[in-house]
Amino acid sequence: MRVIVRNAVLAGLALALLYGDAQSEVLDLLGSLTAALTEVNVEGFMAAFDKRMPDYDRLKTNVEALVNQADVASSIEPLKNEGDDSRRSVDLDWFLEVRSLLQDGPIVRRREVIHCELQKQGKRWKIVSLKPLEFFAPAKLDQ
After folding, report:
1. Interacting residues of 90 by C-beta distance below 8 A, sequence separation 6+
2. 71 is in which domain, residue-wise?
3. Would 105 be classed as within a structural domain?
4. Nearest partner of 13 among 3, 22, 25, judged by Cα
5. pLDDT (tens digit, 9 = 90+) per residue, 60-109?
6. How far apart are CA 26 and CA 99, in angstroms?
């Protein structure tokens, strides 16, 4: 799984070089999300979100359940990154592969366009809205 993380982070960094400062900062933040999911780092994943975001607690609960039930590989491709130096609107083609922890267990693949609204808070970008939240819900891995 580490190869996927490195490729996703390298791809994010390469894309960041093509964009301006605000765009590259947002892409760096989003690259850290994919790495955190794969590394089972819920706190690292949630650090990108404004705690006042609607459904913050539900998202955190879902992500905790997801990474605790399975190995997760994650990658994103930016489709839209618009806005200014204080607010950004981003659409991501997000792919998740959720592999059961059971030997020969099932694999669930998800791919969806995820919409994020980001806001600069001090020197850091925070996600203030993410839709659909259900994308990060635990997978049904019953055999």
Report:
1. 26, 30, 78, 80, 81, 82, 115, 116, 117, 118
2. 2-136
3. yes
4. 25
5. 999 999 999 899 999 999 999 999 999 999 999 999 999 988 888 899 99
6. 28
Packing angle of the helix pair 21-38, 2-18 (nearest 10 deg): 170
Residue 34: pLDDT over 70: yes
CB 45 within 8 A of CB 37: yes
Tokens of 76: 């994103």
Higher pLDDT, 102 or 3: 102
**Residue 143 resides in a domain:** no
Q: Is the pTM for the entire model greater than 0.90?
A: no
CATH assignment of the domain containing 90: 3.10.450.50
The CA–CA distances, whole Å, from 58 to 4, 12, 54, 90, 135 equal: 27, 27, 9, 21, 12
* Residue count (the chain): 143
* Count of structural domains, the chain: 1
Answer yes or no: is 141 within a domain: no
Question: Could you give the CA distance from residue 128 to residue 141 in angstroms, rounded to a whole number?
Answer: 30
Confidence of residue 20 (pLDDT cuts 50, 70, 90): low
Burial 89-110 (b: 16+ CB within 10 A, else e): ebebebbbbbbbeeeeeeeeee
